[in-house]
C-alpha cells in the first residue's frame, strides 16, 4: 500500500453527498503533506486531482477546493509510513464471508486424496555448527537479541526448560560459532543429551523473555504432534506457508517458523489465528499453545535422546505474509469454474420459480423507478401484501411466501399504519400478515456494503421470497453518477440474492426535468447502471388525465346514485331513462325528485365522498424493461390513496405529463386572481368537510388524513372558512 493508494481510497470512500467539501479539504491536505516529502510524485498528484474532480458534484469547484487544500498541506510535510488501518490483514472478503457463516468453509486448498507424503531422513554428513549459523542468519539481524535455553529442570519425570539466555545478539553468537571449531557447547553451553536445546524464534529486547519483551513480531511457530512427520512436511509445503526455517525436532514433529510480519499484538493474534485455521482446515492440527510470540522452538545442531535436531530447510513457500495471504484469497475467491455447455445441454437445470408472474423470478432483482410522489413506496407496500397473501399485484399474480420490508424512510408508527390502510383499501381480509416482517431503520441506515452482511445474517433462516428495500437513496455509497461506484453498490444486491435465494426489490427516483420523451430505461437518476442492473425495471410516468378523470368521476357518481336509489326508491328505473342514468347532471336532479329532502341531503354527502378521492387521484403508466420475460404492453393505473388501481380503457390515449413544449404549456392557461384562488380553496375545504361529516362530527385528524395536509394548514383553513376546533372536533364559530 503506497501513499497514493491511501489517498485514492480515502477520496473514493469519502466523496459522498453531504461530506464532499470536508473530504476534499482533509484528504487534499494529507496529499499535500505527502507530496512535500516525495511520498507522492507530481504525476500521481495530478491524477489524484483528476479523480477529485470526477467525484465532485461540480468538477470546477471540486478542483479548486482540492488544489487549495494541497497547497495548504505542502506547508506541513508528512513522511510516509503505512497506516495500520491499511496494512494487510484478513481481507474484507473473508470478513464478509465470516459474518454470514461461510468463511472458514472456504479455506481448504489441499486435496488430501492427492497429496503425497514426503519422507525425510537424518543427515549423514551433519554439521551442527553450520546448521545453527544458517538458522540464526535466516531469522535474525546481527543486532537482534536472541533467546535460547540449554538447561532444564525436572518435574514429575519431565524435563522442562529454564529461563535461559536472552542478552546476546545474533551477530555475537554467529561470530563465536564461526570460531568455536565445532564445539557448540563452548558458545551456548552444554546440553543434556536426552533433552536437547531450545531457541526463541522472535528477537527480544535483551531485558526479559515475556511477550512484552519481544522487540519485533516477525514470526509464529507451526507445530503438530498429531500428524505423522512425512504428512506434516507435505502439508506445510503444499500450503505454500511463508516458512523461514523448518527444523526436525528430534521427536515426532517438525517446527516451522512462519513469517507473520505484524506491527502490533492485535494484528499478530489475528494473523496467527488465521494461519492456524488454514492449517486445521487442510488437515494439519496445530498445537495452539505455541501461538505466543515468545514461545520456544527446537534448536538445530543439537542431539536429543540420540536423535538429531536438524535443519530441514530455509525460505520454503511464499516469500512474505502478504504474498501468502493473497495466494490463499485467490484460491478461495468463491468464483465458479467454467462449465462445458455440452455437459448439461440435454439436462438443463430448472429456472427459478416466478415470484411475479411474467415479471420477476425468485432470487432475481427488480427496481421501480418514478418521480417524487408517484406512490412508489405505496406500490412496494402493496407488493409485500400481495406476496404475503398470494394475491395479484396490479394485475400480476404473485407467489405466496414470507417477505421482509426494509423501511428506511418512515417512522415506525406511520409505516405500520400504512400497511393496515392498504389492506383496508383493498377490501380483503388479511389472512397471512405473519408473512410480513418489517425492519424499521429510519435514522439508523448505514451504507449498503455495511447493511448487506447484517441483512443476510438476520435473514438466513427466515426463508424470505423477497427482500424489499425502500428507498435505496438512503443507503447509496459513492456518487450515483459514477458507473464504477454504482456497480459496486448494485453488487451488494447480488450478494443478498445469492446468499438468501430471495428476490431483492427496491425503488429509485427519476432525474430532474421532463421524462415523457425519454425511454423508460433512461429516466432513473444517476448512472445508467441503475436501469441496466436489475432483471426487471418497472418505470412510472405521470399522465395528463383531466378528461379521463371527469369520465371516471361521472361514472362513479352515477353508480353511487344508482346504489342509493336501489335502497331508497325501488323501481326507479321505470321513472328514469337508461341514458339519463349515465350522465350525472341529468341523473342527479331526476333522482332527487324520487327522494325526500333529508334523503337528498344524504345523497349529496355520498356524492361528495365519492367525488373527492377521484379528483385527488393521479394517473400513471407503467413501462417495463425485462431480462427474463417478453415485454408487456404498458399498463395504466390510477393512484388513489393509498393504492394503485389498474385502468383498462380510459387512459389508453393519455399522454405523459410534461410532453408539451414550454410555449404550448402556457397556451390557453388563464391565471387565476387572488380572490378566485381563495374562493376555490374555501370551496374545496367545505366539500372535504362535508365528506368527513358522513360518519359523525368531523375532527382535525379526519381532515388531515382526508386532505393530506398538516395540522397547521388545516387550522389555518378552519379560521379562513369560519370554523374552529376547540377540542379537536370541528364546529362553526357561531355555534361556540
Word description of this protein:
The protein is built from 23 helices and 27 strands. A hairpin with an 8-residue loop joins strand 23 and strand 24. It has four domains: 3-85; 128-331, DNA primase, PRIM domain, CATH 3.90.920; 354-542, 3-Layer(aba) Sandwich (Rossmann fold); 674-735, Arc Repressor Mutant, subunit A, CATH 1.10.10. The radius of gyration is 38 Å and the shape is elongated. The strands form eight sheets. Strands 19-18-20-21-15-22-23-24-25 form a nine-stranded mixed β-sheet, sandwiched between helices. The longest helix has 23 residues, at 546-568.
What are the defining features of this structure?
single chain; RepA; alpha+beta; 4-stranded antiparallel sheet; 27 strands; P-loop_NTPase; Rossmann fold; 4 domains; 736 residues; DNA primase; DNA primase, PRIM domain
Layout of helices and strands:
Elements: H1 3-14, H2 20-36, H3 42-55, H4 59-74, H5 92-99, H6 128-139, E1 145-149, E2 152-155, E3 158-161, E4 165-169, H7 170-179, H8 185-188, E5 198-200, E6 217-222, H9 229-238, E7 243-248, E8 254-262, H10 265-281, E9 296-298, E10 302-304, E11 307-309, E12 311-316, H11 321-331, E13 354-356, E14 360-361, E15 365-370, H12 376-389, E16 392-393, E17 396-397, E18 403-407, H13 412-426, E19 436-440, H14 448-459, E20 466-470, H15 483-500, E21 503-509, H16 529-532, E22 536-542, H17 546-568, H18 584-592, H19 597-616, E23 618-626, E24 635-640, E25 643-646, H20 662-666, H21 674-692, H22 700-707, H23 711-720, E26 723-724, E27 731-732
Parallel strand pairs: 15-21, 15-22, 18-19, 18-20, 20-21
Antiparallel strand pairs: 1-4, 1-5, 2-3, 5-9, 6-8, 7-8, 7-12, 10-11, 13-14, 16-17, 22-23, 23-24, 24-25, 26-27
Helix pairs in contact: 1-2, 1-3, 2-4, 3-4, 6-7, 12-13, 14-15, 17-18, 17-19, 19-21
Amino acid at each position: 500500500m503506497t501513499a497514493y493508494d491511501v489517498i485514492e481510497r480515502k477520496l473514493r470512500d469519502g466523496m459522498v453527498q453531504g461530506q464532499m467539501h470536508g473530504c476534499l479539504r482533509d484528504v487534499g491536505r494529507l496529499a499535500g503533506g505527502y507530496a512535500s516529502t516525495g511520498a507522492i510524485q507530481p504525476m500521481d498528484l495530478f491524477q489524484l486531482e483528476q479523480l477529485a474532480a470526477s467525484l465532485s458534484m461540480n468538477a470546477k469547484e471540486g478542483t479548486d477546493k482540492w488544489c487549495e487544500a494541497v497547497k495548504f498541506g505542502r506547508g506541513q510535510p508528512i513522511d510516509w509510513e503505512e497506516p495500520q488501518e491499511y496494512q494487510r490483514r484478513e481481507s474484507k472478503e473473508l470478513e464478509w464471508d465470516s459474518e454470514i457463516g461461510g468463511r472458514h468453509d472456504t479455506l481448504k486448498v489441499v486435496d488430501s486424496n492427492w497429496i503425497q507424503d514426503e519422507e525425510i531422513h537424518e543427515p549423514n554428513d551433519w554439521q551442527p555448527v553450520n546448521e545453527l549459523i544458517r538458522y540464526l542468519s535466516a531469522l535474525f539481524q546481527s543486532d537482534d537479541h536472541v533467546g535460547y535455553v540449554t538447561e532444564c529442570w525436572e518435574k514429575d519425570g519431565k524435563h522442562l526448560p529454564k529461563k535461559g539466555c536472552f542478552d546476546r545478539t545474533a551477530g555475537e553468537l554467529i561470530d563465536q560459532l564461526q570460531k568455536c571449531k565445532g564445539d557448540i557447547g563452548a558458545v551456548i553451553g552444554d546440553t543434556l543429551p536426552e533433552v536437547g536445546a531450545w531457541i526463541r524464534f522472535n528477537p527480544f529486547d535483551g531485558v526479559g523473555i515475556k511477550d512484552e519483551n519481544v522487540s519485533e513480531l516477525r514470526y509464529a511457530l507451526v507445530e503438530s504432534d498429531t500428524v505423522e512427520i512425512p504428512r506434516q512436511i507435505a502439508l506445510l509445503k503444499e500450503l505454500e506457508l511463508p516458512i523461514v526455517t523448518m527444523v526436525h525436532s528430534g521427536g515426532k514433529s517438525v517446527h516451522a517458523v512462519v513469517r507473520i510480519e505484524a506491527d502490533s499484538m492485535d494484528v499478530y493474534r489475528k494473523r496467527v489465528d488465521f494461519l492456524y485455521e488454514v492449517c486445521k482446515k487442510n488437515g494439519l492440527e496445530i498445537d495452539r499453545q505455541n501461538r505466543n510470540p515468545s514461545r520456544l522452538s527446537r534448536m538445530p545442531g543439537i542431539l536429543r535422546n540420540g536423535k538429531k535436531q536438524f535443519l530441514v530447510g530455509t525460505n520454503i513457500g511464499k516469500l512474505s505474509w502478504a504474498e501468502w495471504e493473497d495466494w490463499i484469497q485467490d484460491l478461495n475467491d468463491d468464483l465458479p469454474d467454467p462449465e462445458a455447455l455440452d455437459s448439461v445441454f440435454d439436462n438443463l437445470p430448472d429456472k427459478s420459480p416466478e415470484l411475479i408472474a411474467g415479471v420477476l423470478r425468485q432470487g432475481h432483482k427488480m427496481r421501480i423507478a418514478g418521480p417524487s410522489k408517484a406512490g412508489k413506496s405505496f406500490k412496494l407496500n402493496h407488493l409485500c401484501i400481495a406476496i404475503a397473501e398470494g394475491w395479484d399485484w396490479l394485475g400480476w399474480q404473485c407467489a405466496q411466501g414470507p417477505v421482509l420490508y426494509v423501511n428506511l424512510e418512515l417512522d415506525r408508527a406511520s409505516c405500520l399504519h400504512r400497511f393496515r390502510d392498504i389492506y383496508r383499501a383493498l377490501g380483503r381480509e388479511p389472512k397471512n400478515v405473519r408473512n410480513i416482517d418489517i425492519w424499521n431503520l429510519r435514522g439508523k441506515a448505514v451504507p449498503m456494503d455495511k447493511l448487506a452482511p447484517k441483512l443476510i445474517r438476520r435473514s438466513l433462516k427466515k426463508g424470505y421470497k423477497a427482500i424489499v428495500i425502500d428507498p435505496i437513496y438512503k443507503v447509496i455509497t459513492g456518487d450515483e453518477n459514477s458507473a464504477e461506484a454504482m456497480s459496486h453498490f448494485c453488487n451488494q444486491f447480488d450478494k443478498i440474492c445469492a446468499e438468501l435465494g430471495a428476490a431483492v426489490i427496491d425503488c429509485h427516483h427519476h432525474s430532474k426535468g421532463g421524462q415523457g420523451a425519454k425511454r423508460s430505461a433512461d429516466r432513473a437518476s444517476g448512472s445508467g447502471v441503475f436501469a441496466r442492473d436489475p432483471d426487471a425495471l418497472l418505470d412510472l410516468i405521470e399522465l395528463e388525465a383531466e378528461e379521463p378523470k371527469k369520465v371516471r368521476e361521472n361514472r362513479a357518481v352515477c353508480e353511487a346514485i344508482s346504489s342509493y336509489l336501489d335502497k331508497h326508491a325501488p323501481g326507479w328505473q321505470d321513472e328514469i331513462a337508461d341514458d339519463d342514468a349515465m350522465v350525472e347532471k341529468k341523473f342527479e336532479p331526476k333522482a332527487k325528485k324520487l327522494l325526500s329532502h333529508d334523503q337528498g341531503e344524504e345523497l349529496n354527502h355520498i356524492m361528495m365522498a365519492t367525488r373527492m378521492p377521484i379528483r385527488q387521484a393521479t394517473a400513471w403508466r407503467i413501462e417495463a424493461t425485462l431480462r427474463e420475460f417478453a415485454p408487456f404492453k404498458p399498463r395504466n393505473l390510477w393512484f388513489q390513496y393509498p393504492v394503485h388501481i389498474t385502468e383498462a380503457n380510459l387512459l389508453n390515449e393519455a399522454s405523459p405529463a410534461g410532453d408539451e413544449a414550454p410555449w404550448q404549456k402556457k397556451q390557453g392557461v388563464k391565471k387565476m386572481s387572488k380572490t378566485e384562488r381563495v374562493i376555490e380553496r374555501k370551496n374545496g375545504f367545505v366539500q372535504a368537510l362535508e365528506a368527513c361529516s358522513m360518519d359523525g362530527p368531523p375532527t382535525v385528524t379526519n381532515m388531515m388524513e382526508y386532505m393530506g395536509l398538516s395540522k397547521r394548514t388545516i387550522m389555518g383553513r378552519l379560521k379562513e372558512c369560519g370554523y374552529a376546533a376547540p377540542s379537536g372536533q370541528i364546529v362553526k364559530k357561531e355555534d361556540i
